[in-house]
């Protein structure tokens, strides 16, 4: 499976762009929810992205063989990917885009724990574990520490819980990819398995729950184009490529920037309220990110300092 390197400036810059793109998707899903239900939109965007990947593969005349031992993991990541966005889509009907983004991005916690148990090279140091605790504490403070009626609403709390389940599904997807032969496959191949399964299952779910309706407004078409091309095609391919080069645990922790962007966008575009406890919580989130993502750089600095002595 190979050894992944620690984060560098290129990885950090790429993750900033990735986080901005990913933060905007919940906001856009919520913004057009009256014209197309989030789960159905996610199903359609998965189909659009899968078609684009298949077209790309055909144009480049590439083959994508799947070894027998990778068939079950491929199906498993497809199911986990489907669950992630099923939970997220349902969460957006109950809670705000900001809340959904924050709890979705608890995924690094689940991924880091799973990778720590499964892959020796991905074991976290004490400082990195402290970073996870600090970042998670920041999330709890930012969104469970308020005293507004909205925060205490049972519907909002249920939506938050669904978004948390989405985060767990995403984290487990990362573990399956890294702990199996899928980690050696091209990113587009791994992504295609997830998109195809999600398209089929989420479309079936949408029809079964009578959510498969669409009001073809310009905003809906724009949202579908953004999600299908930018999010599920370009951004996801970039994410999986980064996973083949850098340590997944550190990339996952860096994605804690996304909740900050998500909440700010929700406030700016949807008028969602930002409570004072979010300011403190976001500071803890960023602090946790720095503790984890700077670990590799600090280790190298200590090694160089030791050699100079």
Task: Name some characteristics of this structure.
globular
Give a topology summary.
Blueprint: H1 9-31, H2 38-59, H3 71-91, H4 97-104, H5 107-118, H6 126-144, H7 149-152, H8 154-178, H9 187-208, H10 218-245, H11 248-254, H12 257-270, H13 276-293, H14 295-308
Helix pairs in contact: 1-4, 1-10, 1-12, 2-3, 2-9, 2-10, 3-8, 3-9, 4-8, 4-12, 5-8, 5-11, 6-13, 9-10, 11-13
Describe the structure.
This protein has 14 helices and no strands. By secondary structure, it is an all-alpha fold. The radius of gyration is 19 Å and the shape is globular. The model has no long low-confidence stretch (mean pLDDT 82).
- Percent of residues in beta strands? under 5%
SSE run: HHHHHHHHHHHHHH
The overall strand count is: 0
Taken from the alpha-carbon principal axes, the silhouette is globular
Low-confidence stretches are none
Mean pLDDT: 82
Question: Could you tell me the radius of gyration in angstroms?
Answer: 19 Å
Q: Helices and strands: which structural class?
A: mainly alpha
Largest sheet: none
Distance between the termini: 35 Å
Share of helix among residues? over 70%
SS field, number of helical segments: 14
């Amino acid at each position: 499976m190979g050894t992944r390197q620690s984060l560098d400036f290129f990885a950090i810059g790429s993750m900033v762009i990735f986080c901005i793109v990913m933060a905007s998707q919940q906001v856009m899903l919520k913004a057009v929810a009256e014209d197309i239900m989030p789960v159905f939109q996610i199903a359609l965007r998965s189909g659009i992205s899968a078609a684009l990947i298949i077209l790309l593969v055909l144009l480049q005349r590439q083959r994508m063989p799947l070894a027998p031992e990778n068939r079950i993991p491929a199906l498993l990541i497809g199911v986990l990917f489907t669950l992630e966005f099923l939970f997220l889509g349902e969460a957006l009907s109950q809670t705000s885009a900001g809340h959904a983004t924050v709890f979705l991005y608890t995924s690094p916690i689940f991924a880091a724990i799973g990778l720590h148990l499964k892959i020796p090279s991905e074991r976290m140091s004490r400082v990195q574990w402290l970073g996870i605790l600090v970042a998670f504490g920041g999330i709890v403070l930012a969104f469970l520490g308020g005293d507004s009626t909205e925060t205490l609403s049972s519907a909002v709390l249920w939506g938050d819980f669904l978004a948390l389940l989405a985060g767990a599904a995403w984290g487990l997807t990362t573990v399956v990819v890294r702990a199996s032969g899928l980690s050696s496959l091209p990113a587009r191949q791994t992504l295609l398995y997830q998109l195809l399964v999600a398209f089929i299952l989420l479309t079936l779910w949408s029809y079964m729950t009578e959510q498969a309706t669409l009001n073809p407004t310009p905003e809906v078409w724009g949202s579908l184009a953004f999600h299908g091309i930018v999010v599920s095609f370009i951004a996801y391919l970039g994410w999986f490529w980064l996973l083949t080069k850098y340590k997944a645990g550190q990339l996952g922790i860096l994605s804690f920037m996304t909740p900050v962007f998500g909440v700010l966008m929700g406030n700016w575009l949807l008028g969602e309220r930002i409570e004072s406890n979010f300011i403190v919580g976001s500071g803890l989130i960023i602090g946790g990110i720095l503790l984890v993502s700077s670990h590799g750089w600090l280790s190298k600095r200590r090694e160089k300092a030791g050699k100079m002595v």
